[in-house]
Design goal:
five-stranded mixed β-sheet, 13 strands, eight-stranded mixed β-sheet, 8 helices, alpha+beta, about 35% helix
Length: about 260
């Protein structure tokens, strides 16, 4: 546990670096709000942030593998850092403050990688969330100024708040029917997208959320934060690994019903 707490402190240092770099470019260029932004230049910013984080990891954790969206996988071994430099890049490009850096540490357990440390930092919102396996999940400005996270106790779908990603993604993956059926069964739905609904599940202000297609960087930090807050985090197939390509998160009480609906074709 002490090693993981040290990794958590280091992960906070990494997101401090990422936050400073990404905020330097946030809203720095004129945006043409009449058209979609040129994502290429913002992807360059994302890659630059990832490069900074990778440099720190190489110096401080040279034996650990690193997986990032921009540069792929470097290294092998039982420990792997996963870097999502700017989750919500489209929001970032349009000046919407809902984007974050996500950094997590995965370790091999039972023949599969499982997240043991996760930090999600949304500097434009002034919010940060983190967790260490077996140590709980927290939110706050810093390690010394934090409050513990706990999922909701809503136990019936008609009372539940459900967050999801864009409808087109569900349609493209053949799961729109299940999504629509679930949306009719719950109290309310909101399409927040990206990292935020998973953090809201951990905070207990949203009860269930899901995405049909995600990368490991989109899921790994959220997985340990949600589970340490008392919730459940799996793929749509029910497997607990954050490497399965899809995600379903809940307060735990509603997880079985969530999966049943979302697997309707």
């Amino acid at each position: 546990m002490m090693d993981h707490l040290d990794d958590l402190r280091f992960a906070h240092v990494l997101v401090d670096t990422a936050d400073a770099a990404s905020m330097d470019h946030f809203k720095a260029l004129d945006l043409d709000i009449e058209t979609r932004p040129d994502m290429a230049r913002w992807s360059d910013t994302q890659a630059a942030v990832e490069k900074l984080v990778r440099g720190q990891l190489q110096r401080a954790r040279p034996r650990d593998a690193v997986l990032g969206a921009g540069q792929g996988l470097d290294g092998t071994g039982p420990r792997c850092w996963v870097v999502d430099a700017i989750d919500g890049l489209e929001n970032y490009a349009r000046g919407v403050p809902v984007w974050a850096t996500q950094i997590s540490l995965l370790e091999v357990s039972g023949g599969d990688y499982r997240p043991v440390v996760g930090v999600v930092s949304a500097p434009a919102l002034g919010r940060r969330w983190w967790a260490v396996q077996g140590h709980g999940a927290f939110t706050g400005r810093s390690l010394s100024s934090a409050s513990r996270l706990c999922v909701s106790r809503v136990s019936k779908l008609p009372d539940a708040s459900f967050a999801y990603s864009t409808l087109t993604g569900w349609e493209e993956h053949g799961r729109l029917n299940g999504l629509l059926q679930l949306s009719r069964a719950v109290w309310r739905t909101r399409a927040y997208g990206d990292f935020w609904p998973y953090m809201m599940v951990a905070e207990g202000v949203v009860d269930v959320c899901a995405d049909p297609a995600l990368s490991p960087g989109d899921m790994a930090a959220g997985a340990v934060i949600v589970t340490e807050a008392g919730g459940s985090f799996t793929g749509l197939d029910g497997h607990p690994s954050p490497l399965g390509g899809s995600a379903a998160a809940s307060n735990g009480l509603l997880h079985g019903e969530l999966l049943e609906y979302l697997n309707v074709r």
